[in-house]
Amino acid sequence: MPASHLLGADAAPGLRAERLRPALQTRVLGRAGTGAGAQIRALHLTRGAAQLRGPDERTLTAPVFAWMPWDEALRLDLGASAQGVHLLVDPGALERALHHRPEAATLRFIAGRTTVLQLGADAAAGTAVQGCLDGMLSETQGAAALAPAVIDSLLHVLLVLLYRGQPQAVQAEARGTTALGTRFAALVEAHFRDHWTAQRYARVLGISRDRLNDICQRDFGRPPGALIRERLHLEARLYLENSALSIDQIGALLGFSATPQFARFFRANEGQPPGRFRAALRRGDGAEIGGHAAPYAWP
């Protein structure tokens, strides 16, 4: 049977790690146990094989590391001899791993697609992946200080390893932006809570407001103001979905001077006030909330 460790509020909320051991028969991982929101399964096989079932069927043969955004159409069949580590990651955990990182946009692209890293020909990458996952399992079992920070950092390293292991064409697609577009996205990651205007971002980048608009339209398909609002709105949704903080506390954390100001912003971008959104979430009304926030969808 797998040895599972669910990370609670004192560890790293939203990330489950389990060690897979040989079993008597094939084990099936589907939607059960993943919760209501967007989830990601990550699987490191050191022995045996698994079969990903669904629209994008794949055979996974050890040694391999697979990263799989999950939905109800997918199923993972683990062979009886399969050994390794399995992770279940929710949007909040992923966002913590990417938070305020200049390379966040590139890694979000990787995080948003099924990605497989074959490790047989790259012993160094295999050792690095194994080290990250062993570290996560160790942190879940103990009560060491700052365990969440360690786990978030290890998850970030896993995403970097996935990126490095992709063909150059995929890496180029992930980067997919001009140098200034990448710098703008990194600045937004660092300052969206400060409510900088598009003009201020342009000034820090040393370009005109019109030039920034042209760059954002070309690289992201939206003007800078829309991108800034989307990032703030995404963060608000993540807090409402994944934290026990009050609406007052969330508004303050996001840099709003008063709760009504936060409520107006959220309603303008979501179509309903934050209290109603959270109530619908607790009822499990997916239609009313329009799906769960996915950090890898920005920018």
Automatic annotation (TrEMBL):
Segments forming a coiled coil: none
Domain of life: Bacteria
GO function terms (MF aspect): DNA-binding transcription factor activity; sequence-specific DNA binding
Pfam family, one: HTH_18
Residue ranges annotated for the HTH araC/xylS-type domain, each copy included: 182-280
Protein keywords: DNA-binding, Transcription, Transcription regulation
PANTHER family the UniProt entry points to: ARAC-FAMILY TRANSCRIPTIONAL REGULATOR, TRANSCRIPTIONAL REGULATORY PROTEIN
Protein name as catalogued: AraC family transcriptional regulator
UniProt source species: Allosediminivita pacifica
Lineage: Bacteria, Pseudomonadati, Pseudomonadota, Alphaproteobacteria, Rhodobacterales
